[in-house]
# Entry
Amino acid sequence: MSELRHDALSAQDVIVAAGRAARPVTFTVPPEPEPPTAAPACAFCPGEEAMTPPEVARRGSGAPGEPGWQVRVFPNLYPIVGGPDAGPGTTGAHEVVGLSPDHAQALGRLDDAAAVQVVTMWRDRTRAHLVAGHAYAFAIVNHLGPAGASIAHPHAQVFALDVVPPAVDAALARVRDAGRDLVAADAAPEPLTIDRDPVWVWCPNASTSPYFVRIAHPEAGPRFDDADDDVVAATAIAVRDTLARLAVVLHDPPYNVVVRTAPPGAQPYHWYVDVIPRLAVVAGFEQATGILVNTVPPERAAAELRAAVA
Ligand SMILES: [Zn+2]
# Structure
């Protein structure tokens, strides 16, 4: 039976329509994407540091602009916000975070220490931007072309804005109006749980796309940039583990990772991470209604991801 569900955190409606997955598709299935290979001209690979703007931070060894790094941050050469072309509402910063010196080593394939180093860098960069006076800062990953990546080398992006986006303000208002922790409430139902200890990992009841996974540390406060090292580390390992499970079940799907966090001065909130595999197309029904369609019930996705050995 198809079912209309509502996500209290995003205010997004979704129709979970498992039966629709069985409909015949007469388009030719595109070939599997080629596995990433080391492109000699990859600007994000070690040895090519001069191809990027001057770096702003690194972890690992080596001098700025030289190889030796494990994680490397530099301004985006084609920024969405910030940079010389920024106008009113688009000032801020847009940074690239190289997640590994290895061109083929996506976040889901890193070891614990490397994953912790990566997510700690996201925390440190968002903190630096907020200390510098920007209004809002967050981190995301676009993995593979269908998820918005234009460069194959595994990387994240950190953004700083001088406005708080209306969607973030609206999310804060929903939490305030609810008068309870909406993240904890969303994480609770048993059949949707992938893991509970030490970090909550689950498929939301109103998952807006197949195999959508939400991740939250029970002790996370309102702001990612304010999070303690141990909270960041446990969350990083949970994100890495989730991506590895998705790779097992879905064979390295494109995905977005989005850190949902409150701006300075706003609470209550409970920061969390959404991992959104990009498997579905937003089509005419969704455009007309604002209601998304998910053909994989999150109960089934959670069971598959629980069983997957990452
Ligand atoms: Zn590369």
In short: The helical segments are 112-131, 166-178, 182-187, 229-250, 284-289, 298-307. Residues 42, 44-45, 103, 153 surround zinc ion (CB under 6 Å).
